[in-house]
Amino acid sequence: MIDSYGRNINYLRISITDLCNLRCRYCMPEKGIEKIPHNEILRLEEIEELARIFVSLGVNKIRITGGEPLIRKGILNLIENIGRIEGLKDFAMTTNGIFLKKYARNLKNAGLNRVNISLDTLNEKKYRDITKGGDIKEVLEGIEEAKKVGLTPIKLNVVLIGGLNEDEIKDFVNLTKNENIDVRFIELMPIGQAKDWSLDKFISNKIVLEKVKELKEIIKEDISSPARYYKLPNSKGKVGLINPISCKFCDNCNRIRLTADGKIKTCLHSNAEIDLRIPLRMGEDLRKIITEVVINKPKEHNLENGEYIERNMTTIGG
Ligand code: SAM
Ligand code: SF4
User: Fold this and answer.
1) 20 to 30 Å CA-CA from 107: which of 59, 71, 149, 233?
2) Nearest bound ligand to CA 69?
3) What top-tier enzyme class does this entry carry (predicted)?
4) pTM beyond 0.85
């Protein structure tokens, strides 16, 4: 699918649930978010059908996300059925990793290629604090299991939060020395719970290059990746910097998103959404609807002028 700016839209991110087993301070309120009514959440068969239609239109990369995708009942069946779709070349998941130890092998066997794991600290106490109760040991065991079964290359997503984890930048970077792991530092965005956070929490990820002077920029293998990549001399893994606010990657953006309640979003940072759930349930021609929506993907976001989305990240999946 080519949009009106000539971009080849081949990457679909699907949020399969708005629910989560953690309460990361910047993402989820302590009591959880207001649940989307059950009948408005896409059923697994509907997600599969939509995935099939998207792939038939040219999508060849799918990422499953959430909320926390591993808490959705029937996840392995879903992975197996999507993994079987002919034409799909890259099939990944973003997870907090808590249930990864339990699921990694079955996910791999079901056809998932790789995982991105969100981990904002390496410190047990801080992890419990940021996630309001999560046990980092489970995540670390999950990462080991993912490596063991070959859900690789593994990418760790680290949201940088001023006053909270900038003292751990070096420790994260060092993880790339001996292992083929990519560590990606993501700038905190003022959406979800972080909407009302004080300015000192929002730090530029340039700080990574200031703190680790040995990092050298390398040429990106994939121009549509939002990350700029760097390496330590002779390291096996890479360090990525993702700065959605200060550095735009809209010109090369190849992605679209499907929310847990069946809305298609052609830009993460826009409130514009088109409902696919009702047309799907009414048997309408979704290929036509999707093609039109994609053609109208906006040229770029407007974050630098303070236009932030209203939806919580958990229904979009990041
Ligand atoms: N629960 C899964 C996880 O945490 O990996 C998948 C969903 S989570 C919404 C996807 C990603 O969005 C996570 O890496 C999380 O850190 C990131 N995220 C959530 N809120 C954010 C914010 N305000 N700014 C930057 N990243 C955010
Ligand atoms: Fe859950 Fe992921 Fe949000 Fe954390 S970032 S609360 S793990 S959805």
Assistant:
1) 59
2) 1
3) lyase
4) yes
Residue 193 Cα: closest atom of ligand 1: 23
Ligand 1 lining (C-beta closer than 6 Å): 20, 26-27, 65-66, 68, 94-96, 118, 157, 159, 186, 188-189, 191-192, 194, 313-314, 317-318
Residue 1 is assigned to a structural domain of this protein: no
- At 310 the pLDDT is 64
Instruction: Please state the domain count of the chain.
Output: 1
From the list 193, 181, 174, 266, the residue with the least C-alpha distance to 24 is 193
The position carrying tokens 């300015």 is: 199
Q: Provide the CATH number for the domain around residue 276.
A: 3.20.20.70
**Helix residue spans in 85-205 (DSSP H):** 100-110, 124-130, 136-149, 169-174
Place of tokens 């859900």: 151
